[in-house]
Design the sequence.
């Protein structure tokens, strides 16, 4: 069952403050970038090209954002959670057995798409804030030297504020974004009033005519036009924070109309005065209002960064639960909306990466060459996965899927091809970031499988171990109290339990073997969370408990067991005063041909960022015992 937050005006405003910042600030730099004379493939500033570009922008936004994401992809949610990781989960659950290879290939492609999103999360804050602060150069060119350090300070403050949570940020940013969209829409109307013929570009004939009649120019222009749809994936990835309905209402009711008016107003301004192509967004405002617009634009671009930052948190948390990344510390920042999270390690990694990009590229124009590659590739992968899920999950007729896929994927691939022309001019950067993240994720998945297999071999059968303990208790001291041993399942004996019995020759009067079972859904109802099995040894005080959890949840295990103690009859178990035992694995690089040597080193290095299990599960420090073992990979 799909779980959606209850729609309210506050939720829509919160979504405006978090989700739409990226796509809503694209009008600042899109047209300026298209007609940038320093571009390797410049687009001449002619009336026909202006009409064609504005029409292409409008219809690209309509096809990619409105149709692909808002109307289609956001319906493929996983109990309210969206984003490419949710699609991968649906793919695994819905893929037919006969198409296992296809399903695995598409899942791998999806992981690469998720990896590319991390590149987007690094580039978006840098280009967005830079483009807004650069507005001061239009008013006073001598301020140019202050652009980069000012941008760095703003970005630093943005990432420091993340710990307050998405809801707090949304409440602060929401009203600002409402003002932003009203202002850019009003400025667009003023520009259109001076040259109303620009409205003719609403007709798709101008976009198609530009592509067909001036394909050489239009094709290269697509590499910049794609900037108008940056942030589309963030809408989908942030769906768990606010819900599909709030995002749909915000997009159709305010963001799309305001952005469209701004693009058309800028086009009208360029038609009236071609020299304004150097900064049509800011020059659309009257001279007396430009400083205020720069301040508002700076605030809006800070918010633009928020959309991809929160999206990165969601993607990271889901990837960790699905086994593609190590377990990281995740802070839930809302009691009412469980999808609102903060991941400290990712926050600081993004902050450092964004600052490096700002100081390395130093201008939004330089970053624009790199920006589109990650966006177009992620959009294409999302579209492909959606159509496969639609067929496997909803059994949509093939003819309907085929017709839709031909249209949407043709548009997506055209944008990908155009951005490949910028490969040597910076488009390599997001591909490099994506490839790096993809390598880390697939290496972790492979290494985790190797470690799990070896650990399973060492643990042995849980039933055999307990049976042997019952049959031959000699030499083992029975101590009072309850011990809870965290385990990976119900078939194998916890390493910590084996070590306690075989080396310390001690066992507690009551043993609880606790396994956490992550399900391919975001959340599990409390009534279905706990499964108790006495393993046939209830008289010996031994019980196995499985705690089911969704892949987006972070559980406090003592609190979960407290509810069991209160609501179930489990005999004399004193779970509130229990001792907790964790099995800690130390990884070493061995000689076995399981992975390439460099991947082994990468896997071991990645394991170092794994969150402390006691902290992750909310275990009491004064009653937690960690017993270690080492495994070679």
Sequence:
């Amino acid at each position: 069952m799909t779980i959606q937050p209850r729609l309210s005006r506050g939720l829509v405003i919160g979504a405006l403050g978090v989700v739409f910042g990226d796509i809503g600030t694209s009008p600042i730099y899109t047209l300026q970038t298209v007609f940038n004379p320093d571009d390797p493939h410049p687009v001449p500033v002619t009336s026909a090209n202006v009409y064609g570009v504005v029409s292409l922008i409008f219809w690209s936004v309509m096809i990619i954002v409105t149709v692909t994401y808002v109307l289609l992809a956001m319906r493929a949610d996983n109990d309210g959670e969206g984003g490419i990781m949710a699609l991968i989960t649906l793919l695994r659950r819905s893929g037919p057995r006969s198409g296992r290879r296809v399903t695995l290939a598409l899942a791998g492609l999806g992981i690469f798409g998720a990896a590319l999103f991390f590149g987007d999360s690094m580039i978006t804050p840098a280009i967005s804030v830079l483009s807004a602060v650069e507005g001061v150069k239009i008013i006073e060119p001598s301020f140019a030297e202050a652009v980069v350090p000012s941008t760095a300070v703003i970005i630093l403050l943005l990432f420091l504020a993340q710990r307050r949570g998405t809801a707090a940020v949304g409440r602060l940013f929401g009203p600002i974004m409402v003002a932003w969209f009203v202002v850019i829409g009003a400025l667009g109307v003023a520009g259109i009033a001076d040259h109303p013929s620009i409205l003719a570009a609403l007709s798709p004939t101008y976009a198609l005519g530009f592509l067909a009649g001036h394909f050489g120019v239009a094709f290269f222009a697509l590499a910049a036009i794609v900037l108008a749809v940056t942030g589309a994936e963030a809408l989908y990835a942030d769906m768990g924070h606010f819900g599909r309905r709030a995002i749909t209402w915000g997009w159709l009711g305010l963001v799309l109309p305001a952005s469209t008016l701004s693009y058309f107003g800028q086009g009208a301004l360029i038609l009236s005065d071609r020299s304004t192509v150097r900064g049509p967004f800011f020059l659309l405002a009257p001279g007396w209002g430009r400083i205020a617009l720069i301040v508002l634009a700076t605030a809006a671009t800070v918010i633009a960064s928020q959309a991809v930052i929160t999206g990165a948190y969601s993607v990271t948390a889901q990837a960790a639960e699905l086994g593609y990344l190590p377990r990281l510390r995740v802070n839930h920042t809302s009691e009412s909306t469980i999808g609102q999270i903060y991941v400290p390690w990712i926050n600081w990694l993004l902050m450092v990466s964004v600052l490096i990009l700002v100081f390395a590229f130093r201008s939004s124009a330089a970053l624009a060459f790199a920006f589109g590659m990650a966006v177009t590739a992620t959009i294409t992968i999302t579209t492909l996965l959606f159509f496969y899920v639609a067929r496997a999950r909803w059994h949509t007729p093939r003819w309907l899927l085929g017709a839709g896929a031909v249209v949407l994927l043709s548009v997506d691939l055209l944008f990908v091809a155009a951005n490949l022309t910028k490969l040597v001019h910076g488009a390599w950067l997001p591909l490099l970031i994506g490839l790096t993240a993809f390598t880390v994720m697939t290496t972790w998945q492979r290494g985790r499988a190797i470690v799990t297999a070896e650990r399973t071999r060492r643990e042995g059968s849980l039933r055999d171990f307990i049976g042997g303990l019952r049959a031959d208790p000699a030499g083992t001291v029975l101590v009072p109290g309850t011990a809870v041993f965290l385990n990976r399942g119900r078939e194998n004996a916890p390493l910590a339990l084996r070590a306690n019995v075989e080396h310390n020759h001690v066992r507690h009067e009551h043993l609880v073997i606790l396994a956490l079972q992550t399900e391919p859904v975001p959340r599990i109802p409390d009534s279905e969370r706990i499964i108790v099995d006495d393993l046939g040894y209830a008289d010996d005080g031994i019980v196995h408990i499985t705690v089911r959890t969704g892949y987006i949840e972070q559980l406090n295990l003592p609190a979960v067991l407290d509810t069991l103690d209160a609501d179930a009859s489990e005999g004399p178990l004193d779970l509130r005063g229990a001792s907790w035992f964790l099995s800690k694995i130390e990884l070493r690089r061995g000689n076995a041909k399981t992975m390439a040597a460099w991947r082994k080193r990468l896997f071991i290095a990645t394991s170092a960022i794994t969150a402390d299990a006691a902290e992750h599960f909310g275990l009491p420090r004064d009653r937690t015992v960690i017993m270690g073992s080492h495994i070679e990979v």
